[in-house]
Amino acid sequence: MGVKLDAIDTVVAGRFNPHIISPPWLAKEGIIAEGETVEAQIGVVGRAVVFRFKTGDFIWQVDYNRLVVSAEKIADTASVVAKVIEKLPHTPITAFGNNFHYSCNLSEWKGCLPRLENVGMDQLKEYGDVQSMGWKASISQADSVTVNVEMSIEPTESPPKVSVNLNYHRQVNAAADLVTAAQRFEEDRKASATLLESLLREKVEQ
Length: 206
What we know:
Layout: E1 3-14, H1 23-28, E2 38-45, E3 48-55, E4 58-62, E5 66-71, H2 77-87, E6 93-105, H3 121-124, E7 133-141, E8 145-154, E9 161-171, H4 175-182, H5 185-200, E10 204-205
Parallel strand pairs: 1-10
Antiparallel strand pairs: 1-5, 1-6, 2-3, 3-4, 4-5, 6-9, 7-8, 8-9
Helix pairs in contact: 2-4
């Protein structure tokens, strides 16, 4: 067993009204099915408690600064976000990102592990109990895409885990820009697996 894609989310930064983007409105606009079961959830982002709800395969989180649609399986979260923005085309938006979250048990990870020259997990243990260790990079690519890669090891979890998060970030200023960016979801998903394998030398399990 190797690393697997275990969560996906699409994030839009902008000015949103969480009182509008609600389950009744989503059903009225045909974004979710009429009568679809809605499960209310409470989440924590930083120090803030946020309201979330789940409809079908998707988890929604809306506040005044961003809209997030997540899935715990391979599902096109970007197209769902695009449907919302198409219904609210005058919403001021500034950024769009597809995020792909991979993880596996540390014992199953065969790829590269983060190090700072000759300092790794074993060397850090000389100073005390290691709570986490990580590595990250930000890479500008063609077509104004910035790829942010973050890898972390959590040795205190049971069992210890490796997590790799890849974010495909694009600046957007209008609804049309976002819809175009959302159409690249599958391209981003495949690119995230390819980059993980080539950069960290770990094959993604399907």
